[in-house]
Amino acid sequence: MNEAALWVKICGATTPDAVAGAIAAGADAVGFVFAPSVRRVTPAQAAQLAAPARGRLRCVAVMQHPQTDEVAQVLAEFRPDVLQTDLQDLAALDLPATLERLPVLRAGREAPASLPPRAVFEGPVSGAGVAPDWAGAVALRLRGVEILLAGGLREANVDAAVRTVRPWGVDVSSGVERAPGIKDMELIARFVAAARAACREG
Questions:
Q1: The CATH classification of domain 3-201, taken from the options 3.20.20.70, 3.20.20.150, 2.60.40.1120, 3.40.50.880
Q2: pLDDT tens digit string along 117-129?
Q3: How far apart are CA 64 and CA 93, in angstroms?
């Protein structure tokens, strides 16, 4: 694999250090959670936190089964580059053509007949810190889906994840935290380095 090809997202940023750590480590994207979670932020908070990352990292709004008014508020106040939510949610939303979509497909559920070209592969519950069955991600990749692998990733297992799944990218949240919802800059740096190394050596 080409090291530069692996896309890395640091998800669930709640502090300036989380964003600074993602930038310093050379991540490609930083995610802000608007679904029920210990990592949940308001659109105004996310906009303030994301300011240093604008133009440097993709700023991702992470939602799940959002209401139309919630999406409108996030778009107006936070102005994300990308909206991430479950695949079935996207069909019901009227989104700007310029907004990138990142659909989520979950382990343990039957894959839809019509697959998106790129998707997050996640466990049944987001933010639980539990790795899903990677075989499901491999099956989707073999059907032509570019996989952003999420769920339970950390420095210790990202090498195995990259070598097994051969994903387009990796997405980490709890695996780079020193406490629930609080990212650690050193853990972010070590995770990104391990992911890049796995991609380069694989």
A1: 3.20.20.70
A2: 999 999 766 766 6
A3: 12
